[in-house]
Design brief:
The chain has about 500 residues and is α/β, with parallel strands linked by helices. It contains 22 helices and 18 strands. The chain has two domains: about 170 residues, Ribosomal Protein S5, domain 2; about 325 residues, Rossmann fold.
């Protein structure tokens, strides 16, 4: 007997259909899987055999041959346990008489016939649905992810017997009910701007950075409040749109870091990798080209605390993603592209001891030590950071002050308003924030008056700006104008944007 059942494989965020062909012939008992399976797929022989037996079904005694087509693409993971088991059941008995060719099956089997959850359900279904497939049977524990995928018919099952009962018509189950996406209601954050005393300039810079999605570097002595300011950023991040939530969830689902029961990522990610993180950890890779931290931070924030302590090669690997907003991971067997549109937030001391420029402590570092320390962040990388802010230490009077500081919720309202202006402006441009503008958009949306142009030229000449530096200042000025509800960029917006680049540090 011959049967054909459809399953799915995945490369990066793109699914491809796998036809599981099962043939049962006479001869001594033998079970082979062909079609370029990896170790996990080969091991499915024992899982499938036990799952079928422990589900009360008969495993055929003859020669069982399973072919995974197309045979020239490597099959990885445990996604194919369920379709392989169903193919054997269908080929060896008449339990499943109905046509099941319009279903795609995804799931790992346990030895007792239960179906375990797998990684990457959302990108699998979304990608397969875009290719015209609409009916899926998936693990019950992955059902929450499927609820947000429209125009699909998804059945979540707990066991092999439950799948067989549904397909045979004996015990049909209901499809997963679709629900509407609602942005996460903001919870109370322990890190809130109302707890940050003083630092009005730094707070303003953070609001500008978040409003336009700009990269920001905080430079200051130890204890000045850099880390606390950075950790307040999640509390002022704007709401995620449904499309942003889907993009982010696909990556988190594939990486296996989706929070249990959530179904979708409704709050913007905030990732802080340790300074010992490798290039592969940041960028992605490994034998199966998995996404790295910068892709997990897509539509959110990547925070690098004590930025000069990170390996130079790891920092330099950020240059291309910061410019292109995607990363290409190339391995011997595959090349995969992942989105990586994140806001980079960095913090660092002004020197190794941290006291350079401090009014309260003496710097013990030599000029060469300071130069060597600062050089750990290259000029090209620094040029891609829109705002470079000096964070001054706070006085005792600031810390002891009983005056109320503005809370994050109020700042977040303004950020949402500014982001809405940008979404409406860029509706036909395929981008979402001012920081993503290319030269075409800069020419269209960042026109300067003669006075503003004169200020820009003077800054360019006196500060030794690069062409990229000029573009970055224009993007920040555009954001400041949006925050002020101004249609055109004014001279004061240019002056503020120029002030947010620590050129003395950049020039070293």
């Amino acid at each position: 007997m011959l049967s054909k059942v459809k399953g799915l494989g995945i490369i990066g965020l793109t699914a491809f259909e796998i036809e599981v062909e099962t043939d049962i012939g006479s001869g001594l008992p033998k079970f082979d899987i062909v079609g370029l399976p990896d170790a996990a797929v080969k091991e499915s022989r024992e899982r499938v055999r036990s799952a079928i037996k422990n589900s009360g079904k008969r495993f055929p005694a003859g020669v069982v041959t399973v072919n995974l087509a197309p045979a020239d693409i490597k099959k990885e993971g445990a996604y194919l346990d369920l379709p392989i088991a169903l193919g054997i059941v269908k080929a060896s008995s008449d339990i499943i008489k109905n046509d099941i060719s319009d279903y795609l099956f995804i799931g790992e089997l346990s030895l007792d016939g239960k179906i375990r959850a797998v990684k990457g359900i959302m990108p699998l279904i979304i990608s397969a649905s875009a290719a015209g497939n609409k009916k899926f049977i998936i693990p019950y524990d992955n059902a929450e992810e499927a609820k947000y995928i429209e125009e699909t018919e998804v059945y979540a099952c707990k066991s092999l017997n439950e799948v067989i009962g549904h397909l045979s018509g004996i015990a049909p189950i209901d499809a997963v009910e679709h629900i509407e996406y609602v942005p996460a209601s903001k919870r109370e954050y322990s890190d809130d701007l109302k707890y940050v005393k003083g630092q009005s300039t730094a707070k303003r810079a953070l609001e500008v950075a978040v409003s336009g999605g700009h990269n920001i570097l905080l430079v200051g002595a130890p204890g000045a409040g850099k880390t606390m300011l950075a950790r307040c950023i999640p509390s002022i991040m704007p709401d995620m749109s449904f499309s942003e939530a889907l993009e982010t969830t696909k990556i988190h689902s594939l990486a296996g870091v989706l929070k249990g029961g959530a179904g979708i990522v409704s709050e913007r990610p905030f990732f802080t990798p340790h300074h010992t993180a490798s290039n592969v950890a940041l960028i992605g890779g490994g034998s199966s080209a998995k996404p790295g931290v910068i892709s997990l931070a897509h539509n959110g924030v990547l925070y690098l605390d004590e930025m000069p302590e990170y390996p130079r090669s790891a920092l330099e690997s950020l240059r291309q993603p910061l410019e292109d907003r995607f990363v290409t991971v190339s391995r011997a067997r595959m090349t995969v592209e992942y989105p990586a549109s994140f806001m980079l937030v960095g913090s660092m001391n002004p020197c190794p001891c941290g006291n350079y420029g401090s009014a309260n402590a003496e710097c013990r570092c030599s000029a060469s030590q300071i130069e060597k320390y600062r050089a750990r962040i290259s000029g090209p990388l620094l040029d891609r950071i829109d705002l470079q802010i000096e964070v001054d230490g706070v006085t005792y009077d600031d810390l002891a002050s009983k005056s109320d500081e503005e809370c994050s919720a109020d700042v977040r309202k303004r950020v949402n308003r500014t982001r809405m202006i940008q979404r409406e402006r860029f509706e036909e441009d395929g981008i979402r924030t001012n920081s993503e503008m290319k030269e075409k958009q800069l020419e269209k949306y960042c026109k300067l008056s003669p006075e503003s142009e004169a200020i820009m030229k003077m800054s360019f000449d006196s500060l030794g700006l690069s062409a990229r530096g000029r573009s970055r200042i224009l993007k920040v000025a555009r954001t400041i104008a949006d925050m002020s509800l101004e249609e055109n960029i004014q001279p004061e917006h240019i002056l503020e944007a120029v002030g947010y680049r620590n050129f003395s540090f950049a020039k070293r």
